Amino acid sequence: MEIKDWTSVSFDEGRAVLRQWREEHARRSEEIVELWEHVLSRYPSSLNDELWIVYEQVCIAALDCDRQDVATECIVALDKQFPNSNRVMKLQAMRFESIGKYKEALQLYEKFIAADPTSVSFRKRKIAIYKVKGERMDAIRELNEYLKVFLNDSEAWLELSQLYLREGDYSRAAHCVEELILADPFNALYLRRLADIRYTQGGSENVEHARSYFEQAAKLNTTCVRSLFGVIMSCNWLLPKTSGNRKKELVHSAEQAISQLEEIFNGPGNANEAVNRKVVESLRKTLQQFS
Length: 291
Fold this sequence. Notes:
Keywords: Endoplasmic reticulum, Membrane, Repeat, TPR repeat
Order of helices and strands: HHHHHHHHHHHHHHH
TPR repeats: 86-119, 154-187
Main location: endoplasmic reticulum
Radius of gyration: 27 Å
Number of helices: 15
CATH architecture of the domain at 1-99: Alpha Horseshoe
Shape: elongated
Pfam families: TPR_EMC2
Largest sheet: none
Oligomer: single chain
Domain EMC2 TPR-like: 89-196
């Protein structure tokens, strides 16, 4: 539906649109609030039993838009209809978050988690609060506890890795990405992330691992410029410290990566041809020092 002025639609149209967006999990917060204020809120009783799910939908949208008046109106109506409902209290906790009352929000989430330790959403909201407050160590602790229960949550492993990186704890960050690779060994992004971490850690062993992971990532995603640059950088780091056949192997690996870069740079849709050519020439010139 390509309607932009949602204030002019009929009640039935507005109702159908909200239902469609709920089914599609569409996040169209401003439009949802607009539809509610100008169309549906005029005849709420006409929604019948659908009124309560609409209140919830509008409340979440209102919190997105910082429309505390609309969000509070929805929560009050829902609480009156469903007193002591966890679902309504979750909305209240989200409202506390939106106005910076993190202590009150945390208290509610802890209450929910105590009642249901397997709840994913409440645990993740608690972690999100710690992150917003800048309390990274608390967020790390909570994520570790969460992953003891939900070991296969790749999003959580990735988030934990990023938190460890911000703390400069590269070993633990690498471990998190290794867990991701165990679950999805052909994911080029995970391989490249692990390569980045190993390269940053430094040292011959780590850089050698980084080169291997960059090469695997480049094989899985042949157009990934970052992975190819990673191969070249790793080889250039290792070359002064090697000799003989090992040195020839590294030179060959770097030459292949440079050739792949050249193909990408010469491909259709790539601007700055002169700049790209200079980059390739510079990379080859650096490599020639070791040939």
